Amino acid sequence: MEQFESTTCVIAGGGPAGVMLGLLLARAGVEVTVLEKHADFLRDFRGDTVHASTIRLLDELGLGEGFRALPQSKLGNFRLPTAGGEVTLADFGRLKPPYDYVAMVPQWDLLNFLVDAARHEPQFTLRLNTEATDLVYDGGEVAGVVYRTRDAATGAETGTGELRARLTVACDGRSSVLRQKAGLVPREFPVPFDTWWFRVSRNRNEQAQLASITPRFSGSDVLLSLTRKDYYQIAYIAEKGKDAQLRAEGVESFRARVARIRPDLADRVDEIESMDDLHMLDVKLNRIGRWHKPGLLLIGDAAHAMSPAGGVGINLAIQDAVAAAQRIAGPLLRGTLGEADLALVQKRRWFPTVVIQGVQLLIQKVVFGPAVKGQLAAPPSRLLSVVSRMPWLSKLPALMIAFGPRPEHAPEFARRKAPSSGNPA
Fold first, then answer.
1. Radius of gyration of the chain, Cα coordinates, nearest whole angstrom
2. What does the H/E/C string look like for the chain?
3. 177 touches 19 (CB < 8 A)
4. Residues 263-314 pLDDT 10s
5. Pick from 281, 285, 173: which is nearest to 234 by CA?
6. How far apart are the C-alpha atoms of 225 and 211, rounded to whole Å?
7. Average pLDDT of the chain?
8. Hey, how many other C-beta atoms are within 10 angstroms of the C-beta on 244?
9. CA 258, CA 216: separation in Å to the nearest integer?
10. Please, which pLDDT band fits residue 391 given cuts at 50, 70 and 90?
11. Best CA proximity match to 118, nearest among 165, 66, 177, 42
């Protein structure tokens, strides 16, 4: 190895969970180093939905005003099309402002914003172009990571090293390298569909401030449109394993699919220049039974990959980070951290993970599974009947999407007052 260094906590992965945990621990006074394998956060079609639980958390951290200044659009009610129009399944208007919407914020903007806040803390370090590739053990306990660095311009490997730490946190995503190295195998749940993301422009007369989310069904094809400031971010949802067929059929065939499902977008499907403009997400739904080993904690997608249904993945990962910081910051500072402290993190976050994944499995079974097989001519009649007779029920799905079953609050040690606005007198 070319380098041997140490820190108190090393976090593998600079996604929402990793950066948030780094920020919170640094505010507690814990020396923390976040390793991110890429040169920046500019990767398209990552999860961009920021839900009310996260917006409230940012307010508690004194970051709400800065967050609201980021480029963003607002998503409102979730609706299903019917023969007679639409029915609202999740009515965010029934929630209490200011936490009555979902913000669509490019993930790179959110991550850069959080990193800027974290860099105000002297205990925080972010290393870009640095990928954790293996675990370091000492006496049977995880004692850090092996990493490699790459040149930002060429991508060529420039070095390797070890970073020792009292605690290693795997936030390296649903294909977690550290999870594999630790020998932790997730339980996989069946998922009948994959998602292909693309975008088309949004006309000026379509730029409403608050837009609803309404999936469109046609045969075995499904389109789900998310409204951004000047474009639509669209998910084409189809049966798993269909990627090769779609690409073989070519872009003209795909444009025709989109125009058939959404005739209102037929005038701009030529903006899909080639099949390279489609970004395929191999949808997974899984979780590991144990999120920790001595010296190692896994959170976010590394512990539980979520379906895109409900767009809750980012927010669940951030909630994991908050719960983790609350339970490990003190023991890390005192030098008393043990596996029992790590087990408390999983104990806190297991229930919301299981509940949300259960809801996603139900949505797959009732809606998306039949839809991608061409067996859903219309939304389930029983569901529509209940919602139409008791519209107040639409608040419950809105609460689930906005906050989840166990939202977390910022630890006291991490809270800051919002900066005063306006010019000083």
1. 22
2. CCCEEEEEEEEECCCHHHHHHHHHHHHHCCCEEEECCCCCCCCCCCCCEECHHHHHHHHHCCCHHHHHCCCCEEEEEEEEEECCEEEEEECHHHCCCCCCCEEECCHHHHHHHHHHHHCCCCCEEEECCEEEEEEEEECCEEEEEEEEEECCCCCCEEEEEEEEEEEEEECCCCCCHHHHHCCCCCEECCCCEEEEEEEEECCHHHCCCEEEECCEEECCEEEEEEECCCEEEEEEEEECCCHHHHHHHCHHHHHHHHHHHCHHHHHHHHHCCCHHHCEEECCCCEECCCCEECCEEECHHHCCCCCCHHHCHHHHHHHHHHHHHHHHHHHHHHCCCCHHHHHHHHHHHHHHHHHHHHHHHHHHHHHHHHHHCCCCCCCCHHHHHHHHHCHHHHHHHHHHHHHCCCCCCCCHHHCCCCCCCCCCC
3. no
4. 999 999 999 999 999 999 999 999 999 999 999 999 999 999 998 877 788 9
5. 281
6. 10
7. 89
8. 8
9. 10
10. low
11. 66
Share of the chain above pLDDT 70, in %: 89
Which carries the bigger pLDDT value, residue 134 or residue 84? 134
CA distance linking residue 255 with residue 266, whole number of Å: 8
With tokens 């507690």, the residue in question is: 28
Tokens of 10: 């090393």
Tell me which residue of 197, 228, 194, 201 sits closest to 102, measured CA to CA.
Answer: 228
At position 201, the amino acid (one-letter code) is S
**CA–CA separation, 57 and 50 (whole Å):** 11
Cα(102)–Cα(112) distance, rounded to whole angstroms? Answer: 19
User: What is the b/e burial string over 161-172, where b = at least 16 CB atoms within 10 angstroms of the residue's CB?
Assistant: ebbebbbbbbbb
Check if the beta carbon of residue 91 is closer than 8 Å to that of residue 75: no
Asked if 300 and 320 touch (Cβ cutoff 8 Å), the reply is yes
Separation of alpha carbons 202 and 213, rounded Å: 15
* The pLDDT of residue 202 is above 50: yes
The two structure tokens encoding residue 83: 């023969």
Task: Identify the pLDDT of residue 211.
Answer: 59
Contact, 288 vs 245, CB < 8 A? no
User: What tokens were used for 91?
Assistant: 């009515």
Among 90, 21, 103, 14, smallest CA distance to 55 is for 103
Q: Evaluate if residue 417 carries a pLDDT over 90.
A: no
Among the ranges given (71-75, 239-243, 336-340), the one the predictor scored with the smallest mean pLDDT: 71-75
Nearest CA among 336, 314, 337 for reference residue 324 = 337
The residue to which tokens 């390793």 are assigned: 35
